[in-house]
């Protein structure tokens, strides 16, 4: 018997599997091309994937937990994510 799994959790799991597959594919492409410039370009593209996955998975989790988590915690989580994204741009 398959246990019940919430839709939000299932979407998060699928998104993380896709994200991991993208990372592995990028590593394989870097190995295949064996070129620092192309590896740098591929890595730059990955820099776009990471924050998007972070925001989407956090949003899905918060939607699933909306009734169980206080508004203060939700605001703190989004503030933390905003600070992470801001620090990435500040480099």
UniProtKB/TrEMBL annotation:
Superkingdom classification of source: Bacteria
Membrane spanning residue stretches: 9-33, 39-63, 70-88
Keywords: Membrane, Transmembrane, Transmembrane helix
Cross-referenced Pfam families: DUF2619
UniProt name for this protein: YqhV family protein
């Amino acid at each position: 018997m398959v246990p019940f799994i919430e839709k939000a959790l299932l979407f998060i799991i699928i998104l993380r599997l896709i994200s991991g597959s993208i990372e592995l594919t990028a590593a394989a492409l870097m190995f295949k091309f064996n070129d620092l410039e192309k590896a740098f370009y591929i890595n730059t593209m990955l820099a776009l994937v990471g924050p998007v996955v972070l925001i989407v998975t956090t949003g899905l989790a918060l939607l699933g937990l909306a009734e169980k988590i206080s508004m203060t915690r939700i605001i703190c989580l989004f503030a933390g994510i905003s600070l992470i994204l801001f620090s990435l741009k500040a480099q």
